Structure prediction request, 156 residues.
Amino acid sequence: MRVYVETTVWSFAFAEDSPDYAASTRQFFDACRSGRFSTMIGPTVLDELGRADEPIRTRLVDLVKEIAPQRLLASSEAIALSTEFLKHGAVPPSKPDDASHVAYAVVAEADVLVSWNFKHIVNLRRSDKFNAIALFNGYRKGLRIVTPSEVAYDTE
Prediction:
């Protein structure tokens, strides 16, 4: 299974104020380490992680190095699809990074995008809208958008 790992997932690996999410995230990363998934990230993930304060930024970068996801390169196709998501209201104009994550996952033909961002990404209405806009733009493969726990528990 090809899994795009959005920024919130990396961040929740160290979220001491959210022990349940942190535990589910660590279980997801354990499944990644076991080779059950082929993980990927887009350039937006690295940009967002780079804006974290120290010392958490170093921990996040080290985790990315350890999991070693495929790093998707900047692409005009993903940028164009992200623009379409914003134009058609899949996410608010103030959230271009959220649109970017989904666009990179679609263009890379990920099977699943995992996120803890319930407001703008992991949301049934938004998921339907992302997939409809992608289909209208020629991307035939549907993208499942779920939480890390949904993927990690599916492997038991």
